[in-house]
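FORM 7B - TANDEM STRUCTURE REPORT

SECTION 1: FIRST PROTEIN
SEQUENCE AND TOKENS:
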Amino acid sequence: MAMAVVALGAGAATAQPVEGLYLGAGIAANFHESAGPQAMRLHTETGPAGLLSLGWGSGNGLRLEVEGSYRENGIARPASGTVSTYGGMANLYIGTERALGGQPLQPYLGAGLGIAWTEFHQVGAAVTPLGPGPGRRVFDDVDGRLAFQAIAGMALPILALPGLALATEYRFLGTAGDARIEGRAEGAGGQLLSQGTGQFANRNHTLLIGLRYAFGRSAAEAAGPQEAATAPEPVRLYLVHFDWDRSELSDRSRRILAEAARQGGPYRLARIAVRGSADRAATPEARERLMRQRLEAVCTELERLGVGREEIAVTGPGATQPAATSDGPRRRIEILPQ
């Protein structure tokens, strides 16, 4: 039988997935993988990184943003100098909201495409022989390439400051193809002996911590805890249909209830409407018994999914317990037999 999920409310007074315009900034530690030909394999030191971003959230966990970033790593061996990566990216994120001890958490994944420039600044290594006495091979050039990145992060909304969240991320950024960096060979006296091009892969692993501020706050969220508590509580209605004269849950029913159990997380209200036909020739007592069996099947499945009995309230015809009061748990799932 067909089932549906109907959204009846908007975001709650607590932190919700980003909706509207937001700004982000972060600082990071960046590890640049070793790169270059075997004869001059460059090994880098862990270096600093930073980024700024501007984006738009849809309110359902999806976000689009543009960012600018900068990474710099010193060369540890066998040369000296620095290698920098900077550029712009367009990112797409998908996230959700969970809670730990009443604190909302927002894990997310993302991917991006853009352009990154690889810059070698006075990257030089001693080599011999290059004429009389020792010499150097020096790379000092910039190369731009198509870039891609993968992102995994977690945002921690700061409830005392609506719209502000602390974020931690891991990022992998690489370029399509090796950077082609112009270099030169110098003799012991600095004289130019030859010129050439070196190819260096650009792959970065970045650990970031930053702040994100969302401008699209709801009125209840911006009003503060006391006023927000009086705002209408968001509701989602889940319709569960039973087959004719049956009380067993179908696989599709179980999927709907699993979604209701997740939606019935902290600071949310979910309602489940139980519908199904019975034999019209049956006695009122038999129809009532069938409804109780259906309600019990729904409650049992919700418990199996981790919802406590104290969080479930059965209301309306066939109710076996009173609805949750204002003194009860903030999370509750109301079941409405119809």
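SECTION 2: SECOND PROTEIN
SEQUENCE AND TOKENS:
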Amino acid sequence: MQTTEQRLRHAREQGEPSQLAFALAEHAEPLARSGRLHEARDLLDEAAALHHQLQHDYDEVRCTHLAATLSRIVGDLEGACERARRALEQASPHTPEAVSAAAELAESLGVQGDAELAAEYWRLAITHAEAAGALATSIAAMQRRRAMLLASREQWASALDALSEARALYRAQGEAGDALRTLIEITTALGHQGQANEAHQRWQEAWAEAQAQDDPQARSDLRLLQASLLLQENNVGSAREAAAQARQAALDASMPVNYVAASMMISELAEHAQAEQEAYAALATGWATLIDLLGREAAAETFRPPLQALRSRLGDERFTAAKHAYEEQQRQARVTIH
């Protein structure tokens, strides 16, 4: 059996354009899988040019779209956007090809930093997807991508509309887990928008769903979100309690990122309350725990900078006093255990 490379070599020797175009695209696949992304993209560009000459619109769009994706992956964002635009212009409206091209352009623009234009192309991708009869869950996922970009522009009302549509689609399809994740995103957006009462109501709704689904990761996210919402309202005491619950929930769910975020929040709130030993303890305990979760190097890289920053703010004398008080507390605890 010939390899794709051999078939491509044979097609070049034969010089028949259609056969060569398909051989180019065929060989691009194993090249991409083996990490030779630039070479794969070049073959796809060549194949797309041949399909254009042959007026094979579908195949031209497919090759151009794949070349755009590879361009984005290798960091050539201008090339990715240019190819995605060409694919979108060539694709028939309201087809899966139009959806893919618009989505690729949205992704590339988002990575490039143009969140506003990226959100517009996600909306176009959604329009094509709805007309093409795409899966509701796929449309919901695109709505969430669009919402994320809108939120980055602080366009909270539009982001909430997109998230609400996504949640409705997930619920209609019986996708309880994704519906819950979207509700957490809705609650977060409400908090940023300053709708405190609505945010707390949706938090309660999300917490009930997380409990019903026995979802420890959702519970961890929600505890951390609860602390953030309380802090936004300057309810520092309740925020400290929620942050402690968030840290435990993150441990229960084995979520290092949430654990770090909760530890940092506990330390900052304790420092604000002039509880300097607790501020130090949150970071020192976090360091020790993260060693077990991610290893010594990752723990040091994560917690050394905030500890150094705490020393800088407190000064050497107060920092050392907090450190010694924490270490004495730990020593007494070990004595009690033994």
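SECTION 3: OBSERVATIONS ON SECOND PROTEIN
The mean pLDDT is 95.
The chain has 17 helices and no strands.

SECTION 4: SIGNATURE
Preparer initials: ____
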